[in-house]
Amino acid sequence: LKKLVMTKQLKPMKTKRRTNIYLEEKSKSIWKEEEDSTLVRIVQEEPWDNWRQVSKILKKEGFSKTSKQCRERWNNYLDPKLSKHKPSNYETSKMYILHAIFGNKWSQIVKFLPGISQGVCRNTFYTSLRKIALHIKNETIDNSLFIPNNFVQILYA
After folding, report:
1. DSSP letter (8 states) at residue 79
2. CB 96 within 8 A of CB 89
């Protein structure tokens, strides 16, 4: 058995890994105002479904960001449909109800909460959950922190 193993020549494994040629030169730095304004201009000129094209146009403008970076920046910060306000207690109650239905599928939950991004929704949900846990621990429970009785009306309002 040893002779068979020693005489058999081991060939290196050939793996076919797809390399992203656009990823090599991309910046992981913080977005600058110029990059934000250029991205807004590009997306508002023509609605894009292919974020790779947006990334290529941004590169022609002199900035280097990946398609994922462009998409995330637009969907979470720059989209004019997003509101800049903190979600109200009403919206937070709605988040609890929707979380009970959908679980951690924030993209599904956000469909019922116009103007709120997935990140804001998730962060608000967990922050309010921590507040409730702290109130329960300190035995200072406030009724406004919990889901109201008319949750079905709130869900479809």
Report:
1. -
2. no
Q: Average model confidence (pLDDT) for the chain?
A: 77
- What lies within 8 Å, CB to CB, of 108 at 6+ separation is 98, 102
Whole-model pTM above 0.85?
A: no
The set of long-range contacts for 116-123, using a CB threshold of 8 Å and a minimum separation of 24, is: 116/82, 116/83, 116/87, 116/91, 117/75, 117/76, 117/77, 117/79, 117/82, 118/75, 118/76, 119/76, 120/87, 121/87, 121/95
Q: Which pairs with CB-CB distance under 8 Å and at least 24 residues apart come from 58-67?
A: 63/27, 63/34, 63/35, 63/38, 64/25, 64/26, 64/27, 65/26, 65/27, 65/31, 65/35, 65/39, 66/22, 66/23, 66/26, 67/22
Residues 58-77 have pLDDT tens digits of 888 888 899 899 988 888 88
